[in-house]
């Protein structure tokens, strides 16, 4: 079994490649219990795991307790002065003194086992349960925390768990930062002594950061070295705090919420956190990424084995001016080049002529579609296409019938203004009546129109995020709104098993392992410029798989950056995920449409390998120098090769592949030549796109088959 009792107070949690040893230390003088991590690294035999429970602890001075970074959930209380993972107040007492109340193992089936460590406060009726889950097919360990109040308690911080990274001579962190149209920018640098916080206070995952961090000793490379990763499966406000102690030692504590929130628990109430996930990988950043990808496909995404269809979205061709004639014209062209799914974006509902009105009025635009949408959608289906619609269920316009009927449904605070962003407010999905309303019209829409797909957008962060009817408990809206969105998505999918959902939030504002449990793919950025997308996709791929990444080919010059780009380069960048087309096909030339059809057909031949295969990031910095992304599945190898600066004198000149069988022979599809895997990995090949002199933005798809 994955959970191995070592004695009454210590357990080893084993994964295919790692061991995670924890124990509960009890202070002999005070009786206080401190659940602690004693090992996290390469897999150990059982007896070796038992030995690490007795390793010496860190030196304690009168002014510090360095060992608190090793605790699974350091609380606010006692001789601790670092970042608490749990802060609770009982009236005027803001402190916890926990006692060990036992542990329970649960066989959850399917190769998964859970360990619950039970703790209780020494005086107040307050329980804390630390839950850990391990599976026999992944190195990702899942952790979460439950607190139960027997008397009124005010929780001001409740993280899902704290992870200790083993000692090293130095530490380096990896994460992503960004902004709208510039999401998922990879940053990597020395971890400073002190506290480094990655966070979102926006009520959504946000564009500015993403809830994960990786730590190494500064020597790891793409394919070599030890890497420890922590990721939070949550789509609301969140916080990851990395602490680097002056004496040495690093921990990462992660959970929902942000500074300033107060969650009041009445007697008998409990609060359960989302999962915080930990991964140890001995295979460098690439090995860590492939392990995260496999976990997402195996245990997160709802339809991981499906091949995602090639999509066309009509937004950039029409903006708000959606008409039946134009949509059918676009659909005919899209079908002719091999598109399989046609999605109508914003502008089909209410009186939606611009972004200042009608969010909440989810009925067909009465002037443009007096007879409804069914005729138009049936016309699109007659072309052999599946159909989808853009929706923004959490958005609310003041200029709407819904707002006039239910102004109290918007997030708001008493005696404070209601600020608009993008001409809209946010509906409170923590409310039962709002969720019932949303599920009702979504269910009706999908049923009556026979929809295959929804693009679920969310175009603004929270402001004045209150719920006055809840009084002192209104800060729960920061948690329950997100859970309400999850609930509506889950119930809608339950009623319509064939429905597929894409998550979008003004681009990449809601990309995380929480929303991916309910959606089939996510939209990583509104910026579709191919060179910019390479850096976005590079950062995205550190944690998330290609099968969840929606990627479009749009017009040139690009509508966001105004940069001109060859059509092939735009396609080859978008092929690195779930291929879509978003340009104005009415203005594409016959030659461009012919090329698009050719490239879409090429993509379909390697689609399963790209979406389901093991991904390798090769060569130089994407978007800045010669680079490539390789995918391996079964006997097929697909490599997307890029050269943004055709006359560059420096950078890689041969492309060395990875992840192949060195003794096997691989046939190159383009010319039938055959190569040993050892040659391809050791010496490499010279892609045509990497010729020393040529135009900017050259690219190609290289396909090999193991023979």
From TrEMBL:
Concerning InterPro entries, the annotation shows:
Aldolase_TIM (IPR013785), Alpga-gal_N_sf (IPR038417), Alpha-glycosidase_related (IPR050985), GH (IPR017853), Glyco_hydro_27/36_CS (IPR000111), Glyco_hydro_36 (IPR002252), Glyco_hydro_36_C (IPR031705), Glyco_hydro_36_N (IPR031704)
Under CDD domains, the record lists: GH36 (cd14791)
Q: A single GO BP annotation from the record?
A: carbohydrate catabolic process
| Binding locations of substrate | 180, 345-346, 422, 455-459, 504, 526
Per the Swiss-Prot or TrEMBL record, the active site comprises 457 (nucleophile), 526 (proton donor)
The UniProt record lists the Glycosyl hydrolase family 36 C-terminal domain at 627-704
Instruction: State the EC number(s).
Output: 3.2.1.22
Q: What reactions does this protein catalyze?
A: Hydrolysis of terminal, non-reducing alpha-D-galactose residues in alpha-D-galactosides, including galactose oligosaccharides, galactomannans and galactolipids
Which UniProt keywords are given for this protein, alphabetically ordered? Glycosidase, Hydrolase
Q: Provide an example Pfam family for this protein.
A: Glyco_hydro_36N
Q: Known SUPFAM superfamilies for this protein? A: (Trans)glycosidases
Name the PANTHER family on file. ALPHA-GALACTOSIDASE C-RELATED, GLYCOSIDASE FAMILY 31
Q: What is this protein called?
A: Alpha-galactosidase
Species in which this protein is naturally found? [Actinomadura] parvosata subsp. kistnae
